[in-house]
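Reviewers asked in the last cycle whether our approach scales beyond single polypeptides. To address this, we selected a multi-component target totalling 651 residues and predicted its structure end to end. The input consisted of the following lines:
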Amino acid sequence: MRPSLRRLAFIACVVLLALLPLAWPDPYLLSVLASCGIFVVAAISLNLLLGYTGQLSLGHAAFFGIGAYTSALLSLGFDVDLGVGTLVVAPKPVWLAFCAGMAVAGLAGWLLGKLAFRVRGAYFVIVTVSFAQVMRMVALNWVDLTEGPMALNAIPSLTFWLPGRGVIELVSKAATYWLVLAVGVAAYLVVARLVGSRLGRAMIALRENETLARSIGIRVTHYLTLASVVSAAIAGAAGGLYAHTVRIIDPDVFLFIYTITMVIMVIAGGKGTLAGPVVGGLIFGLLPEALRGALAPELQWMLYGALMILIVVFLPKGIVPALAALARRGPVRTAHGTQTDAQAAAAGPAARPARTEEAAP
Amino acid sequence: MDQLLQHWVNGMVLGATYALLGIGLTLIFGIMRVVNFAHGELYTLGAYVAYGFVSLLQLDFFSSLLMAAAAGFLFGALVERLLLRGRDLGSIDEVMLIMIGVMIIMQNAELLLWGGVAKLVPSPFAQEPLVFGSVAVSPIRLFVLAAALVLLVAFYFLIERSRLGMSMRATFQDKDAAKIVGVSVSRIYTLTFALGSGLAAVTGALLSPLFVVNPTMGDLASLKAFAIVILGGLGNLAGAALGGFALAMIEEFGAGYVSTAYRDALGFLVILLVMIARPQGLFAAKERVG
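The resulting structure, written as structure tokens, was:
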């Protein structure tokens, strides 16, 4: 697709999604989409590391959790005994807390990046997994600060200022939905902008061939750490969204299954593509709702595990690149037909595979 | 001083089982370059096999250990044949994702089958601890220690002295050269995976009377096995054995003198520290392949 068309399609998608609550104001649907959207944001952030730098980070739930806890704690206020004296923090404005959550998550991403990128492959994966585990232990055991398994309750909602209406709390389902959509679009744009830049090309170069990238003077560790910071900060934003919309968090946000959920979304959708985590996130975010009642949760998880294996084996690039490949084949085969090329382009990527089927001899 | 000795004894019991767990994982990584995320699930499988035979079928504990080992061995062979045979094991990430898929399936199958409630496996020995001077050890712990040490020695001889062990070491050093001299590498892969899985399962069964059995116990077991293997250097067998004892001692003394709450976090802090100071593992030797 040409860049201008791509941009048009993107804007059309966002506008359609933004109009959805007006056309279909079903609170259940909106809340399902909102919680799904939070995971899409997390998947977008993971894709930056997994897809573009090629580092399998399996501790991503840590950044999500750090963002959630930081934002929740700052907006609630807390006091904690540090041994040398008690630190008392008064409740902070919610948006300030949210931004602080992103910052702290980004800082954690910087630390882990500095530490973990000294090693690669299996070592890197194990370090990231362990990091999330340590974070969970801290959240469970530092009861003074985190309330441990009793969870943090009554976390305030995010607010919004409207001219004439003043400051309103974003509690309604539609408001939550728009909020998540806005953060999701922002995350998508940040990642799109980043991978299109010099930094993105450096990351892709080192994913493809690290030795070569190093030899032409790309500062590999520097770029990896930068990607890790941005990725962690976006995951922290997703965590903050979670904390302020669900309004209760417990140490389970650090569980390995949440990281796995994000990983499945990214590899199913297509790692290293912008649309991949969005498509994968929507599929695996909505699937549990669609299967609710039909399948026990354990069976659902077994299905996801099986799907994960099948995707890795049969569709290693993911859904979006597979569809794109199908679409590319279409216009070539029908190049002699009139207008087909333009029609295919206008029909958008979703419509193309079907077209290819028709055109096949 | 008495307390010190007691912690040391407890650490030895735990360490011997950790060593078994770590050796299985590092063997699979060393020879096949597969990070086996399902390792902890094999451990869980062993524990449930013990539970099934001892508590449900009234079999004795010792035969159930054999059953667990056999179940782990067969299951490992099956996973290798079905999912790893013919794959390009060079793409570490892909294989890792496949093993995570296996882990998710196994863990949820256990949840479905046994429910979330923890199960108890009765100890085949008397409950009263044996007292040696100032140290008290329950008979089951002593048996676990003895059995684990026997298995460790047997494993050492298998690797160092047997023909199979020689083929495994050859594959470990150079897969292609091993092929040239007539080693069936695909057979070695299956046996390696089966053996590593069998070790994990028998460890789970051995420890089942000491702890409760539940479907998510494998998560922690996997992560501890990772810590052990990192301590010893990935793919280093002797390192994994030492790493097992080291982690157990760190946990035991850490829990005794520093904080019980953070007992399970200690292993992961160790991983992070090892990564900072010595990424190649504390006991890195020429065998290291990570």
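Strands of chain A lie at 78-81, 86-89, 159-162, 166-169. We regard this as preliminary and will revisit it once experimental data from Aim 1 are available.
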